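Example record for the data management plan.
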Amino acid sequence: MRDQDGLAADFPQLIEALLAGGALCEYRHPRLHRLVCEPDSAERLEAERILERLGRVLRESDGVYYAAFDGLDASVEEAVSRQFTRYLDDEPLITEFTELLRQSLTGGEVLVAGDRFRFDAALSRITASQAHRESLQRLAALVQRQGKVRDRSPDEALRRVVNALTDRGYLFESSREAQEYVLTGEYQLFAHWLAFALDQEGFVDQGEDAEDNRAQAQEQLL
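Corresponding structural encoding:
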């Protein structure tokens, strides 16, 4: 279904998602992703025109589309600072969780957007290793933002972590019946940020220099 301008009915939702800072991937937002993945589509061209009028540009990274700021002012600095802070806060949880998945499920392969796992398969592999069970308990504690919580059953701990990452947009439940999850475009953008941060000495260090590192990294991201 298209409106009188020849745009898809989902077009307003596309603009709202981009302006809200969404990372549009084929896994979590398949309909919206289709509207922008064709370079000459009416929806993409109109989205680019609207974003340009609002001081933004449409960017693509590994098949993930998002709106970036085209220019620098106080409001842009504030928005970048908020996003940087969000990633910095999420970094321990998402990094340790994907490392746990990598060790227990993939045989060491790097995880990327589109990689899938089933809850029961992940739980089975994790519970087979004492080290992995301990890592899972630490992750459950991170979700509660406490240094120490009571030990939970592996099922409860994993569900708590998976639900938190789903709520934050890094995971998407692609099949409720099979309890299958997929890493999203939001995770892909986080991975790019993390690679940048690690390339700049100490930017993810939470020690004495954390505030200086945070300010320096934000300056680089603008």
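Summary line stored alongside the record: The longest helix spans residues 74-106.
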